[in-house]
Amino acid sequence: MSNEVEIGRGKRGRRAYSLDDIALVPSRRTRDPEDVQVGWQIDAYHVDIPVMAAPMDSVMSPATAIQFGRLGGIGVLDLDGLWTRYEDPEPILEEIAGLPEEASIARLQQIYSEPIKPELITQRLHEVRDAGVVVAGKLSPQRTQKYWRTVVDAGVDLFVIRGTTVSAEHVSSRSEPLNLKRFIYELDVPVIVGGVCTDTAALHLMRTGAAGVLVGFGGGAAHSTRQSLGVHAPMATAIADVAAARRDYMDESGGRYVHVIADGGIGRSGDLPRAIACGADAVMLGAALARATEAPGRGWHWGSEATHPEVPRGHRAHVGTVGTMEQILYGPSARADGSLNFIGALKRTMASTGYSEVKDLQRVEVVVSPYQPS
């Protein structure tokens, strides 16, 4: 049965759902929340929780990446960001937090025009490695060609190539595009790549040998891709489509499993189990962690899209501060808005739907129930 709707006589479109539009259905069996396991293994790395911290300057500094790793997740450092452009970004972060709204984009563009310094890439990654946590660093697809060797030589465990949209076949008449298949094949470290939001594009990325695929396109709190480019992918449908591509790829490759990581739209604790129910193995949190008291953004949140020199597709969003990073992940929470205790909420959801492993939650029954905020 097709779920296409007629937009007008000359155009049809598929109905797509955001995470807010779906809900999980409890089963006949329930469990004690203390009995459920929420660990996650990607490649050779096992962590306590299926959560990555987004490589955004408002969320991750070397210090918060280390702290996030010690709390059981994987913090990803933005190697295109302030920490690889400036010896001491703290005064800059202070300035960004105090910028008047009308001047914020222009000043961000200026700040991020400072060149990346390869020695700072090495220094920041060594800092995280010395702390004994999983080391993950991100480059944009445009800069991967230039800096990947510096990143690998500095000793990353996971290499993240993250753009607003990433394809296995980028066509350019101006420059030699990054050949992902050759690049990943020659690299000795596992690569996580994205964003992607369709099954076809995801299948192509999986065939490059990526260990994980990031699902999402302009869905985050600091993006305005829908307003500026007219492009948007509702997350529940995007995750389910990419999870189907993973199943097809497993058949095609003789059982090779590629992790699906939901990146964008996971703003509240209820979004985490919903993303997994749609087929994600893990999620990447941005705005949710930008609300931490330790976050470098000081209650503000922005991504690389906001700093684009020609077509900014994001903005500096005020997300406020709700508690420590530990409270955001593990509570306790004195709020009922889903901004604290993401892992406690995930465990309770798994317990009430009867699943003891995160992977099994992908089998839960879901219903479409369009959300009406009160």
TrEMBL record:
Gene3D superfamilies: Aldolase class I (3.20.20.70). Keywords: NAD, Oxidoreductase. Residues 17-298 form the IMP dehydrogenase/GMP reductase domain. The keyword NAD applies. Pfam families: IMPDH. Belongs to the IMPDH/GMPR family. This is GuaB3 family IMP dehydrogenase-related protein. It comes from Schaalia naturae. The lineage of its organism: Bacteria, Bacillati, Actinomycetota, Actinomycetes, Actinomycetales.
